## 1
Amino acid sequence: MPHNVLIILTSHSKLGDTGKPTGWYLPELAHPYYVLKGANANLTIASPAGGKAPLDPSSVEAFKEDKECQDFLKEEHLWANTQKLSNFVGKAKDFDALFIPGGHGPMFDLATDETSQRIIQEFYESGKIVSAVCHGPAAFVNVKLSDGSSLINNEPVTAFTNAEEDQAGLTKVMPFLLETQLGKNGAKFEQANPWQEKVVQAGKDGRLITGQNPASARGMAKAVLKALEMNQ
């Protein structure tokens, strides 16, 4: 049977007080999309506000030579009318996994969104896979399980690193540094060299999967598929 995957996109479109736009990052949805669709997965896309989820225009420019990204831009209907995230509270039984793409947007909304945190908790405690790439793991930072423990406590994870944020020139714009905060909340942070692929699989039954950066998005999606097969 095809797997059902809930994709959670950011609704946040402003890059701090810079006056510049942000949102979700093109290859971090495009590359996993083709991996998952290639396995005939059913994808449902939601965001905190519902409706149009903002695509970071800088990612369109940065990946203008990437064929999958350019092909994916023709699928605008996927993010132009996302479902409201709150509709999926209590619906973990209807899915096999959730996935959160990055972009700087999640640092400003999903990191503190209580609905997102509840859904992630429900999925994980229902035996489902929870995954995120780049800044997507910001959504995991404050997730608590039913026993009060942190989802990421003592778990190996990766995400966009402090070095990468510094090289991107956005350290001072961020509400917090993702690598630092994951560590403060108990995660065992792992990383490759800046901009190199890194995927970490951890958690109960290998159901907590994270990718470091845009280069890790495809590999993270492949790890999700493999975990789905193992957990059938």
## 2
Amino acid sequence: MDDNQNETSANTQLVLVDMQCDGTSVVTLNRPQKRNALSAALLAGLTAAFQALDRNDSVRAIVLTGSPRGPFSAGADLGELRHISTSEAYKIQYLKGLSDAITQIRKPIIASIEGFALGGGFELALMCDVIFVAENAQLGLPEVKVGTIPGVGGTQRLTRLVGKHLAMKLILTGSSLPATQFSAYIPGLHVLPAAEVLPAAKQCAKDIAEKSGPVIALAKQAILAGT
């Protein structure tokens, strides 16, 4: 039995949901032994958690984080993908179910990143509405190094944020950059000392949750319509 089957059979909680009393919820990727690699089970759990929180009227903002002190996520679980071809891996769009779910969520999702967010992990972060990241964190889309490309909009999202030429360099070489360098190209990226990242993300969520839920949902929809 492989590690992924062990996780499933043991009913491991791959996604932790911590409901706060201030109208927020903290969702934690909980697969540290695999650097929070995005297995099918983790993706299903994360999708279900987001959908449940979106239906919960007591929750008005969501924080998404990885392991304490990192990582956020190493990306797709290559162990699950090793049995299929490159073309098949791209065709199944590994993260598409989660991406589709996130686009339907009316509540703001704030990413809190320590350590690194690479490949599908960085794509997941880019799907979020606000990003807080540790100044020493590494960010990148290295999919070309394993014979594929970012599969669920990472190419477009990164290009919109940093421009064509830097996106070309990063994606075509599979390079990553520290968050401090990314912040020069992404003014809205909140780069902080590692110890301050999660508290700042929680405070941002709390500030949002103090506002009218329907108004926040309308504002989020309007902003996304213009991007």
